[in-house]
Amino acid sequence: MSEPLILQARSLTAEAFAAFGDVVEMAGHAAVPMNQGGAERFHDLAQVDVRDQAGEVGISLARAQPENAPVTLRLVERHPLGSQIFMPLGTHPFLVVVAPAGDVPGRDALRAFVSNGRQGVNYHKGVWHHPMIALGAESDFLIVDRRGPGNNCDEAEIAGGDVVVQL
Amino acid sequence: MSEPLILQARSLTAEAFAAFGDVVEMAGHAAVPMNQGGAERFHDLAQVDVRDQAGEVGISLARAQPENAPVTLRLVERHPLGSQIFMPLGTHPFLVVVAPAGDVPGRDALRAFVSNGRQGVNYHKGVWHHPMIALGAESDFLIVDRRGPGNNCDEAEIAGGDVVVQL
Questions:
Q1: Where are the alpha helices (DSSP H) in chain B?
Q2: Full-prediction pTM beyond 0.95?
């Protein structure tokens, strides 16, 4: 049995996350005025990709119980037919653990990011990810993903031994 | 010039709002477990309808400056090609003013609702609505609506005289 791998979480940035999906945030995007100047809008922050096999967009809410770092990872999953947005509805940081689309990842392929609590994520289609990990407090999210026919969730064990994410 | 019409805002409920769109909230919906029991998910809370004329789903953020009640309404708008979700990212109440899809509404057709700050709304395609009215504090929203070719915004004056919304 190998030693646990210690995976250091990094701050979530659009650049660092680009290989896995989109960061849904205002920072780094130009605003356009709306509502006669009473508001500003930041356009097109995520690529929703759900139409494979007659998929439609689904809108859901989720309430997650918090975990305490360091977190021992349990498994990874992917949605082979669609992208998936998790947008926080509060201000609590949360952990995002991903690996590239493709074969089941070994533990060395995992990357961990911490959302500042205002940043949402959009996993691109097929990107492996750990189930979301709320930190600090019960946390609510809006989910924008795919609904429709077909199998859209694969789960896999993380190969190579335990992985512990630290902040 | 007629007297201003006083429009009393009501609490936002799925039932009262059903003629205009969906209320995106956990209340009244059954949860299913997710993430090995560490979270619960409330499925399919809004009908996203954006495909007319080759439309796609767009994901945006908006930051709105607050207004003070009573609010004198300015205009109404509708999106003839798609639905539009406003999901609050904080806890501040906001005002939702709507009128049925169809001809430009007279002021008697308007209805006003107050979100409790956790409830989002999804305007169904073509439903007339006032630009969103944040209350109390600068407020951020996630918007899920349509992007694509064609004219997807009609604006109209409110016929019949001034309308003042009170809480």
A1: 14-17
A2: yes
